[in-house]
Structures
1.
Amino acid sequence: MAKPITGKTHVGERREKRPNGDIYVYERITAYDEKNRKTYTLSQRLKGKIKAGTQEIVPTRPKKRNGERGGIDTTRQHTGLTDILEWVGKVSGIDDDVRASFSEGDAEKMLSIARYWIGSGGNTLPRLESWQVMHPLPYREAITEDVYGKLFKDVGRNEEGVQSYFSARAARLGESAVVAFDSTTISTYSENQSEARRGFNKDGNGLNTIKLLTLYAVQACEPIAFSKQPGNIPDVISIENTLTQLKCLSLEKPLIVTDNGYYSQKNMMEFALRNMKFLTLADPTIVWVRETIDELRTTIAGMASTCPFDPTICGATVRRMHQFSRMRRRSRNGTVAGEKETISRRLYVHVYYSPDNEAKKELAFRRDLLELKAHVEAGYAEFTESVQKKIDKYLTCSRKRRGGRLKVGFNDEAIAEAMKYFGYFALVSNQTMDTFTALENYRLREKIEELFAVQKGRLDGARPRTWYPDNLRGRQFAQFISLGYHCFLTKKIKEVQARLRKKEPEKSKSLSKLEKKLDTWLSQRSLAQILDWFDCIETTKVKTVMAEYRWSTESVARDKLFLEYLGMD
């Protein structure tokens, strides 16, 4: 029979050993949460410490009471940065979505850690406890290594809360969202991470990797979901689970944008059969893509094909019926399982030409062939399979007589055929779309690469820094929340800059001058530098028996204008 729940609290003791050998002794009061079936900490108080080499507890010095300080209660904290982040969490809905998906304690801890990462520029978590002393965060108690270690494990196992948060973020996008899908790799030396395997390492450091897959709303400029996979899973076979996840998120008619790492006949067929809109970059070396390029060459050469927002690009679109084939898994409608089935689907192929890109590719191609020719003439015997194919295709090797000198030339016909398609690239979609709207949507997809750079460089995401897979997922989820803060604030700052550059005749001369000054200041600083600038603002609170007083560091007119245009009170 289970032990009855009394609702009483338990007073226990926790000991924490520091690097110098001292042991800090804490008195901890815990209670049992019947709903979540977990024990949680109500309060924690430092009782004293056991100095290295001794056995006795040295009690801490008692705090002075209000009466001993003349009845004054005073605090001073850095609030400029944290006020901005608190505003971001409220306006973006991130804080509400986190609190609705997790218990109050876990939500407050995750929001605190997320704000710490973005506010400190990606400092490691052991520094959080001292940072929060002077920076007010949602979780008021100290976030020690034990606290965030347990948090990451609990959140990593709470898949219901994680998926609930993803769904809440997706619900804010509305109908016909454009969603980019891409991956990056996280390198690790760890042997405890079962998902760390040898695969394509995008950082190029030769370590085992864990693959991080992310869905990013390109128009809203914010991440909506992520997942992790073993590092040896190729990008091209990662799309099927993502399509299922999109259904789970209940996004209405999303357009999925991918690069050529996810292009394959199988993936296009998966999109078509699931009635999901897609836009993907196709490799111009594919036969049917080259046929489409040849078909549109004359059209693209006309002035009417010039891109309105980028004159260096020309483009045109053609519709074609494309044949997909697959093996039937089940017998249905007269088709037997295991038989080959052909399916026709309508595709739209958008072909683009860039003279600048053509010149760059041709120059790189010529240099590559000259280098290959030099290696062959020097007698290099071993080449990789891909390099050997290039040699066989573009170079000609001969000897005048037996044992004579090797003569290496160029296969001009094959080279001319390859160069014929330089400067061209193609986007394929199953959704009717204007030629340059498709290009614009694809270019917005590139923002996801900036997202990965931010997560690795500014949110301490370049290494797992945890022992176990569940803890890593919890840690990545906290980084994902911080990434949401970063993206929302970056978008708002760009909106401020657009407003500053908008010419309005009714503006006074002094306001125009101040706006120009603010625009110059914002253009010269990154988000981290802007937040660091406002971190100097301090708020002092003094509470006496008679009254309560509060004041903050003064701000110059430019800073006040920035906060006003940002939307903060």
2.
Amino acid sequence: MTDAKHIAAMTEAEAAIALAGLAKQLAEANAAYHTDDAPVIDDATYDALKQQNAAIEARFPNLKRSDSPSDQVGAPISEGFGKVTHAQRMMSLDNAFTDEDIVEFAARIRKFLGLLDSSRLDFTAEPKIDGLSLSLRYENGQLVQAATRGDGAVGENVTANARTISDIPEFCKDAPEIMEVRGEVYMSHDDFQTLNVRQNKNGDKQFANPRNAAAGSLRQLDANITKSRPLRFFAYSWGELSHSLGKTQKEAIKRLKYLGFSTNPLTIGCSDTAELLAHYRDIEAKRATLGYDIDGVVYKVNDLGLQARLGFRSTTPRWAIAHKFPAEIAHTFIEAIEIQVGRTGALSPVARLKPVTVGGVVVSNATLHNEDYIAGRDGKGQPIRGGRDIRVGDWVEIYRAGDVIPKVRDVDVSKRGPDSQAYTFPKICPECGSDAVREEGDSVRRCTGGLICPAQAVEKLKHFVSRAAFDIEGLGSKQVEAFFNDDQLSIREPADIFSLATRDAANNSKLKNRDGWGDKSAENLFAAIEEKRRIPLNRLIFALGIRHVGENSANLLANHFANWPAFETILTGAQNGTGTEWDELMSIDGVGSVMAAALVNSFHQSNSRSSIDRLVAELEVIPLSRADTTGSPVAGLTVVFTGSLEQMTRAEAKATAETLGAKVAGSVSAKTDLLVAGPGAGSKAKKAADLGVKVIDEAEWLALIGRNT
């Protein structure tokens, strides 16, 4: 996670990149959790990512994205259900993690309402059920509609399924004419265990935890399946009402109970934050004995009039907050530390534990994050856990954040044996033997083997044949996986693709005779592969799948070098951080030290370089065609733009210069011919003066290239 110091030091460009990554990661997590009922990250990690996003947005409010996670609730609904537009948006809650957060929550409310510290401010406190949010609409006392939260505005119509839940009344006597009751569908621990036994007996998939079981059961397209599942419902809130349920939160909850709904008996009133925190401690102590999953306590301002005055932010009410529990804890010892290599080449350490039950689930593995975490320090080199490292044989305190991925919290060094040795993190990939490097500013060590690393190969090959890369018709992700695992026509690296037809001709088991293939389809595939032997330089560079080199970066590199020999010569001769070849890489506008290092490393690893050489031997790389710049006053010049331009954007100025045959660099060096300086030019203008580089303003630049100002 990015810490506060890192965020404080961010540039706008870094912040924009970080926000884009967080938006993508959180959107995927939301869809997995809310739409697919299959979480991909634990609750604690999700909360930390949301906090990180909010902190960056607070520092750079102008960079807040239109798809900001701060403005989203839930996730889009599944296409299998009808849509229901909520009469009143279903909101989420702000999270709190410390006692100080709760004190601040109360202080914010007092400040907003103009209340003195001596003025009484009542709250309610209730367990936060870990289930699936549901909204029930009653008209004249009759249940007419049930909908999931969805994205907060539009949910899924699960009316038929909700009618099968015994805790949900079909009719409410003396109810308001219009009444939307909101609450949580959940499954008890006992019912969850019974269900999983039944699933196993029937050969069906078992559920990971009660929340997934409840959500998956409610969101069945066949209501009879839902009926067979032991679902429960707690009511704790409401949406549209034709008449109020009471003057306070407590009165309204009492009225819901009178109307036939199950309400949580642990909901109480509190007159100050001390009472809130005392109830939090009490519920936390009872957590393991409740018989259902909770992940915190929700505090709400009791007076509904004050709730109305406080109102809402974009996705959360100002008058409520969820005080989350720390993850559940247990103690065991580490039997081994193993390294797993992910599809991006990341080396991820995993602790193999003596199995222990945590929160009703048997845990035998725990993530160790990265080498810094094992060594007892954070990404900035500062000590964590008091600087205590993690070793094989250590007794450790583990915790399960959100009941998904166990983590090691602390180490009991008093139980270490005399033969205990510090763990040495590998610098060689255990899968392929390539160097495993850690880039500056990165917390993860990664294998540089790329296409030759078995752990990465399939995903790298899928990237190689993707639309923006080689785009070979008939060779998509499904076919790549099949060929990768084929004993006779194996494709393990890109060069293998171009020998496929030759190997097929020599093979007794022809491709055309295999399932899913025929004479025509095999012939078409070989023709499509042959057609792609001629490939533009930019597509080849992108297809190599070098980390940090995306489609736009590949275009920049191709535009600068124009042909493969020039590109290959520079990368072959370049040394990280030094030399004329390195300087040339760094002079390319849009190429920084991280990307340059990734390029150099990929060409200096013997295995990956051999793979690249074998591929290029099969190809005719098409040089970049350049426009005729005869007569251009800037053809062949290296130009740098700095400061603010007023007649055109920086991007337009760069594109124009390149069209006229100039090379646009991002930094001033001895090779720079011309610096175009607008208002606000700083260090680049000074460096140009020191080096004797000619400096002109925007008007002079436009005059030079024949543009009217």
3.
Amino acid sequence: MTTLLFANRLVDLICGGYRMEKRVVNLEGIDFDVYSLNTMVVGTGAAGFNAADTLYSLGHRDIAMITEGINMGTSRNTGSDKQTYYKLTLAGDEPDSVLDMAKTLFSGGAMHGDIALVEAALSSRCFYKLVNIGVPFPHNRFGEYVGYKTDHDPRQRATSCGPLTSKFMTEKLEAQAKKKGIKIFDGYLIIGILTDKGEKSIGLVALDMDKLDGPDMGITLFNCTNIIYATGGPAGMYLKSVYPMSQIGASGIAYEAGAKGVNLTESQYGIASIKFRWNLSGTYQQVIPRYVSTDEAGGDEREFLEDYFPEPGKMLDAIFLKGYQWPFDPRKVEGYGSSLIDILVYYETQMKGRRVFLDFTRNPSWGSKDGELDFSHLGEESYEYLKNSHALFGTPIERLVKMNQPAIDLYKSNGIDITREYLEIDVCAQHNNGGLLGDIWYQSNLKHFFPVGEVNGTFGIYRPGGSALNSTQVGSFRAAQYIATNYKDAPMSVESFLHIASGQIGDKVRLARALRDNIGESSNVLDRRKEMQRRMTRAGALIRSLEECIKAIDECERELKRLLKDTKLSSIDELPDAFRNRDILLTQYVYLNAIKAYIEGGGRSRGSYLIRDDEGRLPIEELPDKFKFTLDKGELTDKVGEVELKIEGDNIFCSIEWSPVRPIPSEDNWFENVWNEYLKGNIIK
């Protein structure tokens, strides 16, 4: 690739008198901007903003952030009935310790013990930072930050400031970053991670989406020593999703660059509304709404759950328990458990082609008389909860008014009045427990590259609710700590950067040009994406089989090879979406290969998915053989699956290695010894 350097110029883009170098280079007859700085933070959610703010607080100034849209992403646009932050117990007389919390995280399976210890140890520090910048977590009049139990939590470590906890976190962290004057490149899509021989990251290729119609197609280069990658989970893979529409993810280009994945088999799925995407946990279920199925046109209404339960009490209790036990869990299917409801909703929507709704305006017919629910049908747990909440009366919406009026207001503010209308639902992808590999400093196998937040594969099979929000803060803090201590070097010269990366840059430029050449009168970009998403929901979500997985992998590989030939754009404005489709395909290919390897290795149903096993048994006799399964017995609980994508010319494949989990470390915590090591600078390394 011919390279000609043009005019140097320095532009003041970062606070505190620090100046970011901007140069213009000419590659193959086109001028491109190149920005040089120490650290780029990709993403403006809770993890990204905390990373940038922490770097600044540690004295690091040569930093900037980059995002597709500052108001996009999961942290700012998602939540649940009572969105949870999970941390060490900070109230009451219940004993707790860092090691106890680490054991809880580690006990979920397929999680490294040293990372569990880090996430426990720093949970209080990160939590109190959020408190100090104004996130309104509740405390009592003595200053104790009270808690409650969440799923997979033996203590009362969970806390919340309502359904929008992560939104509050993001907004307060954003205010800190803006107060410090940290530069944010808003409206840029990352399309490539540049590396030095696939061993360390050295920069980024992005599209400035305000300049797509220019001769450079908006392509902008960033020459940086470090990348903190806070792009969120790979939400764009799925059709049935509770991730916000604005959240796509950018995991594919990380795998393409050589970053490994870990535990990509492990994601969470659960019941959510689909017109306005929101988890339907907590009181939405505990008030016991009606589950209604209709045909595509909204006719042929029926309460379908009663066809599968032996008595009304079993059905009502299962609905109630979906509030506590929101994620689908194959261990909670048999015996008419709460996760049977997920399967029945899936059966109605994704196999029968019907639509399913929650109706809060009337009580379930089965178990009611003259419209009044007979609470004597309820089991002890359901009954006592509603009794203690003074809600043993009325309709579901009347109980919800009593217990959680903000849950109603939330939908009303998004154009849905659940006091009058049905709420359409499905079983949706919600969280990725796996993701990109990281060590205890959240650095990838690709050096100088730090995946943080949901894009990092911190968790294994099961995790306490709210631990993901804690991980956004702990991971971003640790990455910033490591960079500020060990990776403070200025970026390489632009000449050296281009010498190493010109081939990789040229590949992206040629791909953009080829896509631009496909502009015509019609477009298929979004239609193709919907087909991709439909495939992943069919083959790689909560119901899986080896046959479907292999079929989906073949489709992904074929579509990747035909991407340029098959993609049609109607304008240059669709160029970013074409690149997003490519990222989705790469991500699906890697995830599906991980799932295939797990099944072929004898892996069975666990976590939040059911794997078809013709030698297994059905949850209930009324369901088809597709739902036959066998529960995992822990054969792979003490291992993690590490996945690496390989692209060699037209050939694409994945290598997968199963490694033992690292145990929780047993450290020498004698104060004088730790202090001595700390003073010598031997801790952060």
4.
Amino acid sequence: MRFHWLLLTILSTLLFALPAQAGRLLFWRYENNQNRLIFTTDSRVQPRAQLIPNPTRIVLDLPGITLGRSTVDQMIGGTIKSVRVGQFNSQTTRLVIELAPGYTVDPTQVKVRGISPTQWTVELPDPQRISNSTPSRPTPRPNPPTTNPLPQRPLNPSPSSSQEDNNFQVTRNGLFVRLDKQGQNRDIKVQDRQEEEAKTIEFTLPGASFPQSLIDQTLAVNQYGVSDVKFEQPSPSQGRLTLRVAKDGPGWQAYYSRLGGLVLLPQGGLSTVEDLTAPEPSPEVSVSPVKNQNPTISTIELTNNNGQLLIRANGPIKGEGSIDRRTGIFEIRIPQAQLADPITGPQLGRNSPIYQLKVRQENTDTVVIQVRPSLGVRFGGLRQPNAETLSLEVRSLQTSRPPVTTDPTAIPVPPPPNTPSQPINPSNVTGTPRGRVLVVIDPGHGGKDPGAVGLGGLREVDVILPISLEVSQLLKQQGVEVMMTRNADYFVSLQGRTAMANRARANVFVSIHANAVGGGRSNVNGMETFYTGNRELAEAIHRSILRNVTVANDRGVKSSRFYVLRTSRMPSALVEVGFVTGTIDNARLRDPAYRSQMARAIAQGILDYIRQKGL
């Protein structure tokens, strides 16, 4: 799959149009006491898993994900020797859990679960000592499970295999083909054809599609009595695979695996083909260029004084548009099309009506374009000016915008301060400068009160102070006067916090916290926002977080009698950014990039409220 990202930043207005822009592995941790690996990515991922013996390793490949650093090797101890994380190839990160010598696990008991599209866990059973007896090969199970367990067969590439394309593997247990789309096992059709010196076995796969790199290619195998394999895609909804095998060899069977691929095995098992010599390779064995006659989308541009987004192709295209009302993202799906390499896109400057543009080749025949608007921008309908062009109307909402509300989507994210400032003395605060808006940011707890302590010892104070400092900096850069109840790790009483804000006659008070729940309920995750009396500020912040941050769970906007809310004399809100005791939230709150996203969203919500109220 090919991705093109066009992202808005304050530091650059250049177009990012890379042939393949992968997501990143943000966080991973092995919890030895629970035999569990947790990892988080910044984009949707579908892991691939396999069990490899001698020594026993559970291997997880994350397609479309990059590590961005050198290989990490963490020694664990006990029955788990180590966990390694590295870059398997340019577009795949690999995580390896290696067991101690002499231990193994039942692969059917290893559970790979997606808590969310970007948050996964790998749960291992207790490792067992390897017995001297040789286990029999398990029978294939074609029915997919509800979770994503490891396959019963290790998919370990044979050292003698010269096949470099990871989409097709010659393994110690047969042949494996990765698929973009699977069909049903009962629909697979097999046909044998006898030739003079060999025979061919053709598999017709209704509903299946091969990766683009395999289509119209014939690859050498020269193992298990198979000389080569040919891949064809007669239509988007039907694949065809042909094996050229030894004349006196057995038939072959195919079934869909749990990894999203196709497994090919000789009838009677591999022992029936171990002594067979493969026939001479077909003279057509080669690596042919992919032939795709679909129109190519080469340009996406803003025209008509930023009033429309044009998508241009070199042939007739059709598109379907839909909008996510919660996020405002407009998605355009264009079937029977492909992306140019590279694609030319618009320059997204700080005043651009488009905040983010994501373009991807979803499969061999479908292009998907997602457009996120900047603040104050909405999209109209999708139109077709001519056969080769699609047009998306871009509308700028006409609202009065005071000087303090420059588009917050263009706010740069500064690095955290190297050293904390001196504590603020509330008695020195005398009032708000004339003509300015004063916002009080209140990082909860501090000093002798660390707040909640979550999984892995993550403390609430260590999460919320960086977020609060960044919110303060972002607001200041927009011309907003900001006061912090604390700007380092020291204690301030609840009474002292609201007294500071009331004495300064602040316009807005926002308290920032992280949540916790007892009883070992690590499945409880999500963010929520509280208010007392007036809920407009809380709603503005909550909407902004949902629009700009991927949260594990939306726990809503709620009324509460928290002390800092009921004793403050100005509109106030208390934000719980997530649960330090939650598996998903804990991993995300440890990540500086995620905390930065949360800070930007809170700052934008405050600015939205200021604009709405005309302060």
